[in-house]
Amino acid sequence: MAWNFFLSLFDYKTEKYVVAKNKRVGVLYRLIQLSVLGYIIGWVFVSKKGYQETDEAIQSSVITKLKGVSVTNTTESGVDVWGPEDYVIPPQGEAVLFVVTNFLETPNQKLGYCAESPKVLDGLCNNNDDCEKGKIVVAGNGLMSGRCLKKDSNSIGSCEIYGWCPVERKFKPQGPLLANAENFTIYIKNFIFFPKFAFSKSNVLETNDDTYLKKCRYDKELHPYCPIFRLGHITRRAGYNFQDMATFGGSIGILIEWDCDLDKGYSNCSPVYHFTRLDTSVSNKTIALGFNFRHTRYFRNTDGERYRSLFKVYGIRFTILVHGKAGRFSVVPTAINFAAGLALMGAGAFLCDMVLLYLMKKGNSYRQWKFEVPR
Amino acid sequence: MAWNFFLSLFDYKTEKYVVAKNKRVGVLYRLIQLSVLGYIIGWVFVSKKGYQETDEAIQSSVITKLKGVSVTNTTESGVDVWGPEDYVIPPQGEAVLFVVTNFLETPNQKLGYCAESPKVLDGLCNNNDDCEKGKIVVAGNGLMSGRCLKKDSNSIGSCEIYGWCPVERKFKPQGPLLANAENFTIYIKNFIFFPKFAFSKSNVLETNDDTYLKKCRYDKELHPYCPIFRLGHITRRAGYNFQDMATFGGSIGILIEWDCDLDKGYSNCSPVYHFTRLDTSVSNKTIALGFNFRHTRYFRNTDGERYRSLFKVYGIRFTILVHGKAGRFSVVPTAINFAAGLALMGAGAFLCDMVLLYLMKKGNSYRQWKFEVPR
Amino acid sequence: MAWNFFLSLFDYKTEKYVVAKNKRVGVLYRLIQLSVLGYIIGWVFVSKKGYQETDEAIQSSVITKLKGVSVTNTTESGVDVWGPEDYVIPPQGEAVLFVVTNFLETPNQKLGYCAESPKVLDGLCNNNDDCEKGKIVVAGNGLMSGRCLKKDSNSIGSCEIYGWCPVERKFKPQGPLLANAENFTIYIKNFIFFPKFAFSKSNVLETNDDTYLKKCRYDKELHPYCPIFRLGHITRRAGYNFQDMATFGGSIGILIEWDCDLDKGYSNCSPVYHFTRLDTSVSNKTIALGFNFRHTRYFRNTDGERYRSLFKVYGIRFTILVHGKAGRFSVVPTAINFAAGLALMGAGAFLCDMVLLYLMKKGNSYRQWKFEVPR
């Protein structure tokens, strides 16, 4: 019945146009009706699920954990074993984490006097006058002592500074030292909650087999609920080679998308993972390449004197974002969208009047008819 | 006058339907008008405050600070005193913070050779062939030396590795070591700013009594502007027992909601706190329980050799979210909503025409009348 | 032609009103039409770019790096040199970072017995009964030993505690110790990506001159693509004096806004920087002033005994937010907005009918004419 009624919308006004001896506009009106109807049914209701009320205020919690070890051997540090507690910064399983893939250690720095790094422009000098005593080197590593240190009289030297010595040496990475970081695995635990529907779910398989998470790897078909990824797998999915990124570092975004149709039930609400590299711009000739920073470890010797190891670490930062929305049938939106549809038809009819008035020669006769005055 | 005018909307078209000898549709039209009117006044204007322009782009800053001490006594670490600088990770008063409630220390780890942990599947072996020299144990702690260490010939052994030794022992927490973490207090400083209205406020009482924040505790009625909470209070409000969460850890969300009606003045804009546990899913049979991670402290002995303490810490992560919107009367939205109301009435009238055309036997006569042609 | 058609909208119905012998309403209707037209063209299309489809789901990545050194000289710590690796917390170039501008070090703390700080209310005592043995001092630093330490018999003393001794002394900062933090520079690397248009860009100049970033400073006109700022510049732009903020600390928001009209091409999409102080509320009499926290460095002496340095650091937290939206011409929104405009005109006509019916004496004659019945 409601359907028949809906159909009857088509008769409305149409014959008016016919009467008005203008088939074309009749057809136009039909077309408008059809397009409106198509829009309402096809787009609003089927595609956009206009019959559902939705909740986009997703509450989410992300916990990450990395596994894997890497062994490095450098002249400065000797043999070293890197575990997650070392190469994940910060270590506390946040949604944003940095994985060290390359580093330069400057061990046994002590407070004292030494030459500023030649990389620091403001630290270059020709004579002592360029190194004003007590002045701090702009973007440098310490306080000028007033002396200019140079190999020979006619070379460009660099000011002597008071700071943590020796200063970090020049370093252009040749390749990642933690080469096998590619095989590290990241375990992404994600819990979501839709307040409006009191619906909560996690991206981890609900099983009692404790060893499941020790063996499984994510696979879209086989293991959609095993959120454990090889880092190399992630970068490849993002369209980049891990080794290339590992040398200078970079930034990768992991987007977890929950699009839940609660009318279809609990099991049909499952996460989809997207991977994109975040630190790229269309034109590749950029000087803003890579991602690195410095951190320190402080020690004291037997006399209580401080010394430290300065680490310049290169690596990949992973940022995990969670988007999501849930929908469930509700009367209110259905009604509103239906009404909006009707109103749209009204607009259609209105439009046709316009066309009638404007387009056709017989406009006048129609005008007469439409606005005939009481005689 | 505007009101009278509004009322007059009711006369419009009604008599047409009467004229058209169809009371039922007249009634239907009245109903539609009433419902539309009710919708506009009741819903749009009263409930949704359609007369206000709103600002949802809230700018917020959260600063947190914990207080409280806990004393632990374990075989590995001996007696230890934990202050906020130790159990809050990261310590810098972020909106996301982790509070240690349980831990396992593995002190005095040195780089060297020892047996891989039996928990690591890939580290188990029957003979040396299972431990390929120089291969890294998947999800393990080091580099295989090639030897398989086993208690007796017919037991399952584990490969010898080069790494930080001794490796962490098996650990199933029995109960939280920082039991009185329940009594720690968290001070949540929140500042908000609504750019559109240049309105700013904080959730802390504006007083000159410096000792206020040292004595007060949050209470919805007595101290709504004392943002200091007992951790145990928070978990209980979230519906969980602190001690249960403390053993394996978990994740709690603290939502601060600012819903400000600026027409009602400064004092009526006050924060509301909501507490929810974030790491739960409807079905409780999950293997993704708890929240823990590892961090280290590095030391050097007199010979400059490195050794370290490895901490596996369990705890509760608190995530503080700030939502908010402010509204103030403005002409534009009022006008728009009013116009929308009128349009809706138009749609109502349109709908009635439909009904007339379809429902009633006398449809034809009505058609004639409605679309009579110029003779 | 489309334009002529659009114009013809004006004729519609107007003459009806004229016919109905009511110029006033004719004029009213004209006004409504004009305002609607003005609204559609001026507001919807020109100002709000209603002809564009927009993407507001901006994906962004922020990397920060500070440069600058400061030298401090205090009785506790002696001479110390602070580099970014020390005064930036956390050091890993996040979008939220804390810069130390002032600090108090309590070096060589050992686990032992000492007097609780007099700042802790719960630690004050008149006699030993006030210090219940084994009880933890609320908001204090340790475990009560049961003794009350006091200078002389009739003064107020403080309980002896077991904890990290000596406890931190009272500290009201006189001025920032890292005074020249004002001259530190922050380099904000921001990459954005609009998924819908696959458009990506960065806020760093695309050049091959590697030294550019070492020399340039941000300048709205000269160097809009040099995202390197003096901290003092930022606070001033936010409306505050750096030295004032530096003493007790504070919180500053840096908003990067990308409003990209892709119809105008790649180069017209450039970032705009806004700076606001986040931790202020309209009334300045607040006790929630400043921003500080404590962190520690742990050491072990030759006997393996632990001792530590406790740092109470004051500073400024910078929070970098990225907003943005991009728009590009698209048929769909253009059509929808155009249709909406027509519908609005319909509503206008409807409104005029209302007015006709209500306002004028001649209402009845009009009624007759409008709803004349088939004779």
UniProtKB/TrEMBL annotation, chains A, B, C:
Sites where the protein binds ATP: 65-67, 185, 292-294, 312
GO MF term set: ATP binding; extracellularly ATP-gated monoatomic cation channel activity; purinergic nucleotide receptor activity
Main location class: membrane
GO CC entries: plasma membrane; postsynapse
Glycan-bearing residues: 183
Reaction(s) catalysed by this chain's protein: Ca(2+)(in) = Ca(2+)(out)
InterPro entries: P2X1_purnocptor, P2X_extracellular_dom_sf, P2X_purnocptor, P2X_receptor, P2X_RECEPTOR_CS
SS bonds (residue pairs): 114-165, 125-148, 131-159, 216-226, 260-269
Cited Pfam families: P2X_receptor
Entry keyword Nucleotide-binding: yes
Transmembrane segments: 338-360
Subcellular location per the Swiss-Prot or TrEMBL entry: Cell membrane; Membrane
Membrane topology, record value: Multi-pass membrane protein
Protein keywords: ATP-binding, Cell membrane, Disulfide bond, Glycoprotein, Ion channel, Ion transport, Ligand-gated ion channel, Membrane, Nucleotide-binding, Receptor, Transmembrane, Transmembrane helix, Transport
Coiled coil segments of this chain: none
GO biological process: calcium ion transmembrane transport; response to ATP
Stated role: Receptor for ATP that acts as a ligand-gated ion channel.
PANTHER family the record matches: P2X PURINOCEPTOR, P2X PURINOCEPTOR 5
Family statement drawn from the similarity comment of this UniProt entry: Belongs to the P2X receptor family.
Protein name (Swiss-Prot/TrEMBL): P2X purinoceptor
